[in-house]
Amino acid sequence: GDLARMMVEFHAQNDGWLTREDLAEFSSAIEEPVKRDYHGIDVYTCGAWCQGPVLHQMLSLVEGYDLPAMGHNSTAYIHTIAEAIKLSFADRERYYGDPRFVDVPLAQLLSPEYVEKRRSLIDPEQAYAELPPAGTVLASEAAASPAGFATSTDSPPPPADTSYCCVIDKQGNIFSATPSDVSWDTPVIPGTGFCPSSRGMQSWAVRGHASEVAPGKRPRLTPNPALAMKNGEWAMPFGTPGGDTQCQAMLQVLINAAQFDMPIQDAIEAPRFMTHSQPDSFEPHTAHPGLLTIEGRIENKTGEALSELGHKVERLDDMSYKTAGVCAITKDASSGIMEGGADPRRMSRAMGW
């Protein structure tokens, strides 16, 4: 049709690669979600063509700790979760890619034996100063650190061009989606009002990388909506914008709600922290080894103690859009009461009618 013609002509005029055949052959697949239990809560994400399953890896590692006993946002709490996030991201870099092209060993990565092996690498007295190595799924594999990226000591730029929405309707249907594409870093196609996607920048131009660019291969995207449910008693769709901060923020909000019994708005507004000790999902995939950013409401003495453990601590505003912008709904099935939570860190809202 006309839109396809304009898109293809624009690409042809600007050295783009999109063709009519690409558009004609495209279809959206219905795929099984990845599911994992966390303290009796079933958590669902999309597959390893996005970073969704890394949330499961983070949950599997922190599940081995008594987080409430540590104290919310204490030094031990932040250190433990940050180190678990680093290890999970190292596996994301080594193994995650479009499952139609790459054999992603999710079953092994989430197995109790592998999780225990990875958890043993978390030193309560010392943070990883550099990027930790990925784990080895097979005994014949050698441990490998991420490669093909630059490092920087500057503050990382905050990804800000993603949308998230969730709905629970009166029949109980639950919708969780990250309907996002970029806008300001790619031109508007004349006559259409929309942009050609630049999500290809989340592929890698590195031979042998699991998300190495290839014809017809999906990039390993950052958008990753999630859904949590507890035995038909409780449900929570949740997600956020924020690139590599997405799973980190979603992890903290889920823990706040599930283990600290915070109402959803309190769980969202609670102070957050982010590690940047992984290659950025966006080209040029810059990493910031050892960097831990913390919101200003986290106590000064906690930040100082984290520095003593080896984290490169950078303080943010009391509520910073650099720590993502989680939105969520909770529904108590027994009472029927629903609560919506919107993150004041970014433009968001909760509505009910």
Explain the overall architecture.
The structure is a single chain. The protein is of the alpha+beta class and 353 residues long. The protein has a six-stranded antiparallel sheet. Strand 10 and strand 11 form a beta hairpin. Helix 3 packs across helix 7 and helix 3 crosses helix 8. The chain is globular and about 60 Å long. The chain starts with a helix and ends in a 12-residue tail after the last strand.
List the SSEs and their pairings.
Blueprint: H1 2-13, H2 20-25, E1 34-38, E2 41-45, H3 52-62, H4 67-70, H5 75-95, H6 106-109, H7 112-119, E3 165-168, E4 174-177, E5 226-230, E6 234-239, H8 246-259, H9 264-269, E7 273-275, E8 291-294, H10 300-308, E9 312-315, E10 327-332, E11 338-341
Parallel strand pairs: 8-9
Antiparallel strand pairs: 1-2, 2-5, 3-4, 5-6, 6-10, 7-8, 10-11
Helix pairs in contact: 3-5, 3-7, 3-8
Which features does this protein show?
353 residues; alpha+beta; 6-stranded antiparallel sheet; 3-stranded mixed sheet; 10 helices; 27% helix; globular
Total DSSP helices: 10
Q: What is the helix content?
A: 25-40%
Given the C-alpha coordinates, what overall shape results? globular
Strand order of the largest sheet: 1-2-5-6-10-11
What does the radius of gyration come to?
A: 20 Å
Largest sheet: 6 strands, antiparallel
Mean pLDDT: 92
Share of residues in strands: 5-15%
Low-confidence stretches: none
The number of E-state strands comes to 11
* SSE order, one letter for each helix or strand: HHEEHHHHHEEEEHHEEHEEE
Global structural class: alpha+beta
Span between termini? 39 Å
